[in-house]
Amino acid sequence: AQKITQTQPGMFVQEKEAVTLDCTYDTSDQSYGLFWYKQPSSGEMIFLIYQGSYDEQNATEGRYSLNFQKARKSANLVISASQLGDSAMYFCAMREGFYSGGYQKVTFGTGTKLQVIP
Amino acid sequence: DTAVSQTPKYLVTQMGNDKSIKCEQNLGHDTMYWYKQDSKKFLKIMFSYNNKELIINETVPNRFSPKSPDKAHLNLHINSLELGDSAVYFCASSQNMWASGDTDTQYFGPGTRLTVL
Asked: Do B102 and A33 touch (CB under 8 A)?
């Protein structure tokens, strides 16, 4: 089974509108971390936001928020008031394995390409 | 100041050649990584080092050899380059993969686009 699933290969959003990028994950660990990264066309990977599995509040960072629904194993990224500069690939990622005795690593999803339309 | 830097940014070479990519981080982090991003944008871990010690070595051909001279540097040497090695290689670092647990956030370098002809 895929550890991280991003079902939207591409999305469009109108400038100034909000957009939700979907991410579901699969783990048997009780403790894990969820991350979102942005990759603009220039190629760099930019860390956006982190959510811990035990965090009760949804993480927020400026216009980014993470809609964490633990029972559904989803960690959707919400971008409010989209800007042209938000056009990029967005990757969801999960860290697991810290408490299970093995080495832990981060698994990335396949990404969602977001295009913001003026 | 660049937090995680890689050189070179672009690398074009012939099949069979040997090449190296260098990575440096000035974040004071203990853990460093190499990732490969293929043409479909899929990102996969190759190696990780913690305080110069190899921790993760995914199923990577032994033509790839990482070296960490100190905890701020992680280099990747590739022998006998093949067409399938063409990809973007990212270096990343995080505070400490053991101490920080699931909060350990990775920060990426700008990537090195390797093209093998």
From this structure: yes
